[in-house]
């Protein structure tokens, strides 16, 4: 997302799109038709689907992605043992207590040291919640979390992945999204439906960081912990564009050219730059309301996905993304958030850095961490911008470890 915005060209051709046009990616359109059939699978057949290797054929992987769209109807509760996280963990200067610091040793834990070896051990632990809500980044959809959902559910968690408005298989046209509230409405609806006293662990990736921040301000009592994965972790008064426009500061060999366009009372800043030798071709704005009005969406050049976002991911996952990603709505990217210490600031935040990220550079991630210190910082070595593809097991272990951090110690 960072480089996609960094390489935007204001000369992109206007895309003629009807606001009533679904504009679904072909693969996801087929998923929607197959979801009804999937809901009729027997329990034993579901287990066979879960057993499909991540290294199988692309159609098998696509089926695994489709399974998440009906995961609300199935909850087998199957579980597999797994070790504690071996990722490096660092305390944050913003942590209220220093007792949260974990060892950065990569020594494997013994079986007796593992806190979780069976699903009933997870359920019986004094966890504030075992429900996880996963929020995708710009251009992505709920489909990107299919590995994470499978791993979490096998460990005894209840995992939900949401399609934000105009994303994944959501029916809305991306060009019709006017603000962040409209974009995150499917996520907000989840919280409106939560029972009294129910809480979730809220996880956001990329632009999803701004989305979960917005919801944290609205529903602080319903969120036990918030996790930012290579995400826009904003300070109050910032927009996601404010973060992405800083990319040039961490690529000194390239210059940043900013152009300001004033539409009514709103100033929209766009940039055209070569942040990296890998990312030189411009992205394109969609002007569904005409060139005299603000852009409505950003089209991603899918030929650049491998080098920018998925440089450590498998060919099959890149293929899945290339046929599933949709344009990014523009209005949510430029909207500035007002975040209060009583609401947003009352929720423990955890940041997961992606060390091999070519889209949201590590120095930029560290800059956000310094400006808006979270409770704790984790690190995924060898991960690109999409750890749910490139490092699913390591990401899973960190999410489980975060779920076990006692609230009394935060």
Automatic annotation (TrEMBL):
Gene3D superfamilies: alpha/beta hydrolase. GO terms for molecular function: methyl indole-3-acetate esterase activity; methyl jasmonate esterase activity; methyl salicylate esterase activity. Keywords: Hydrolase. Residues 132-395 form the AB hydrolase-1 domain. GO terms for biological process: jasmonic acid metabolic process; salicylic acid metabolic process. The keyword Hydrolase applies. Residues 12-21 have a biased composition (Basic and acidic residues). Residues 75-94 have a biased composition (Polar residues). It comes from the Eukaryota. Residues 1-21, 75-120 are annotated as: Disordered. The keyword Magnesium does not apply. PANTHER family: METHYLESTERASE 15, CHLOROPLASTIC-RELATED, METHYLESTERASE FAMILY MEMBER. This is AB hydrolase-1 domain-containing protein. It comes from Populus deltoides (Eastern poplar).
